[in-house]
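Supplementary Text 2. Reproducibility record for the structural model of the 182-residue chain.

All settings were left at their defaults, and a single model was retained for analysis rather than an ensemble. We include the record here because the model underlies the residue-level annotations in Supplementary Table 4.
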Amino acid sequence: MTTNNTTFVMKMLDAMSVEELKNRLAAYMMADEKLVSRPIGVEVRLADSLERSGRYDVLIILEDGSEKEVKFHDRHSRLVYIYTLLHPKGYQRRSLKANNYQALKELFSKIYFGSAEPLLKAIGNDFDHYFSQAVAQSRRAIRETIGDSDAFEIALPQRHGGKTLVTFAANGGNVIMDPSLQ
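Retained model, structure tokens:
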């Protein structure tokens, strides 16, 4: 079976032009994890323009010096991700409920430059569902940005004594926060 596959592939290669070979090889090399620039940091900085996505961009910094913007699919995943980066040693999920979600409301107002009413409406009376959904969506956004990214995602609290954290930040990774968020 392997010989048939090898023979088939070799015939395909012989039939391809040099340009076609280069394009195919480039696609394979781009998908090769060993050749892709690895993430070495996270930065939250003021956006160049105020958009629906908020005043702050979240960028993953790669070892080649380039940056990739994390494209969050909703406001709440961005909010929870930035809040988690602001607390590198982690926090208990239930602590966010204090004073009617005061810490989240303040950060929401900074990021989205307005009232926190949409946040309270989204939380409704099921904070656990709201929070779980925001964490799941933030993980999805990180994966779509840098692929295999466990260290840059919000980690499972069960693995960290019940604390919500980003493992990369908790381990002292390079996290740059805009001073206006601190």
